[in-house]
Amino acid sequence: MASQVRLFISAGPDLEPARELLGQALAEFPINVGWVIKRTPDVDSVAESHLFVLLLGVDITAPVGLELYWARRTEKPIYAYRMETHRTPAGQVFLQETSLLDWRRCRDLAALRRHVLADLSRFLLGNLERYGITVLEAERLRMFIESLEKTTEPAGEQPAPKPAGAAGGGVILAPGKDEPRGARLIGDRG
């Protein structure tokens, strides 16, 4: 039986636009997969997640370091992305102390979106049975990865999306999937 993908996104407050963008991108994923998104500062949800996404911007704030510790401790796949920006001294030290992570550099939000979608697609391809992904859906994911890798955006900062959804995390349901108990539709807040 297919399960929903439980994703934890760890980031400081300066990357709120990035989290919003990623939530919107997951809603447009090319196959029908349900996503449960948890995020900083919900440290307890790290252990329940299937994979851990770490975003680093200008600064590191609590409890991001603790969340990373728990992701490592519970052996979650860790996907680390760092924005190309000037960092505070604390951000620089955090980057040095986590140098063993496979940090992916992102010049802007569009690059972050592409990298995350491609990496999550690869994660799904490695877990076809667990998430009930069919052969046709797997092929769609491979084509999606190819299209993401071919796409290049003009240099420069992309406009940040307006907050419009579940600011504290949420559940993204694919069409035709059963709703989790207690789920409700969140309408447009205009």
Write a brief caption for the model.
This protein is α/β, with parallel strands linked by helices and about 190 residues long. The protein has one domain (about 5-155): Rossmann fold (3-Layer(aba) Sandwich), CATH 3.40.50.
What would you say this structure looks like, in words?
By secondary structure, this protein is α/β, with parallel strands linked by helices. The chain has a single domain, classed as Rossmann fold (3-Layer(aba) Sandwich), CATH 3.40.50. Helix content is 34%, strand content 16%. The chain is built from five helices and six strands. Helix 1 links the parallel strand 1 and strand 2 (35-39). Helix 1 (16-27) crosses helix 4 and helix 4 runs antiparallel to helix 5. The radius of gyration is 16 Å and the shape is globular.
